[in-house]
Design brief:
Blueprint lengths: L5 E3 L6 E3 H4 L5 E5 L3 H30 L10 H29 L3 E5 L2 E6 L2 E7 L7 E4 L8 E4 L19 H7 L7 H5 L11 H20 L1 E5 L1 H18 L1
Antiparallel strand pairs: 1-2, 3-4, 4-5, 5-6, 7-8, 8-9
Length: 246
């Protein structure tokens, strides 16, 4: 049996033996999301969720109580509606933030056969090495800030020939390198001077659709919310392993 790693959960109450979760695996590297990324992202997350939750509710509430016209509702009834709406919004917001916080309790592991994400002793992402194209460092893919990630695209997903993988990529760069039926997306989005141009509404919609799709792919197959140092170290661990073993 290979080397087995162990780590403390964020709660500090349990020690998880990776030998129980990944038996027989040799642990090459272990990483966890950056707490700085969490601190920087939690406030914008709260505000964006509040806006998305409250906007339709406020509009519906205004229409319901007959804003601008004679309403048959009493002040007490209006206060009850507002109170119930507030409580429901806070409950939904609480669940959403709890789920978001859980992502920051993850442990990312590179072994001699796979890359994996473990949350609460359960494997949430498990990708065999033979199904991975390469390790690609990205930034700003999730939080739109300088949060770094290591993306493990499936084989055939990207054309990485001649690409300097030491340079972190934004999501649009990943899109450019994707193998698609239409060919290279950058040819669609750049003029003869190499500058990005969005003069055609249809092209712009397609590009934004590709950005959203690619961002989802990155989230599903990445070590997320890392510092640049951690992302580079994780990618190098993977590159060195592949170079020496495959």
């Amino acid at each position: 049996m290979g080397k087995v790693g162990a780590y403390s959960l964020k709660s500090g109450k349990n020690i998880v033996d990776l030998g129980d979760i990944l038996p027989g695996e040799k642990i090459l590297g272990e990483y966890s999301p950056s707490r700085e990324s969490y601190k920087k992202s939690i406030t914008p997350r709260v505000f964006s969720n509040l806006i998305s939750l409250l906007s339709p509710v406020v509009i519906a509430l205004v229409e319901f109580i007959g804003f601008g016209s004679n309403s048959n509702l009493t002040v007490e009834e209006i206060l009850i509606i507002v109170g119930v709406t507030t409580i429901m919004t806070l409950v939904i917001l609480g669940f959403s933030l709890a789920k978001f916080k859980t992502e920051f309790s993850a442990r990312y592991v590179i072994t001699n056969t796979r890359v994996a994400k473990i949350i609460k002793n359960r494997i949430k992402m498990d990708i065999p090495v033979e199904q991975i194209e390469d390790a690609v460092i990205t930034f700003g893919a999730v939080l739109r800030l300088k949060d770094y990630a290591v993306f493990f695209p499936p084989r055939g997903y990207m054309d990485l020939k001649g690409v300097n993988l030491n340079v972190p990529m934004v999501t649009s760069r990943v899109v450019e390198l994707e193998r698609t039926e239409e060919g290279n997306n950058s040819k669609i989005m750049k003029n003869k001077d190499g500058k990005v141009t969005i003069g055609n509404a249809k092209i712009a919609r397609t590009h934004l659709k590709n950005i959203r799709r690619t961002r989802r792919d990155i989230i599903q197959r990445s070590f997320l919310f890392l510092t640049e140092e951690m992302a580079r170290d994780a990618a190098k661990k993977y590159w060195d392993f592949v170079k020496n073993n495959i």
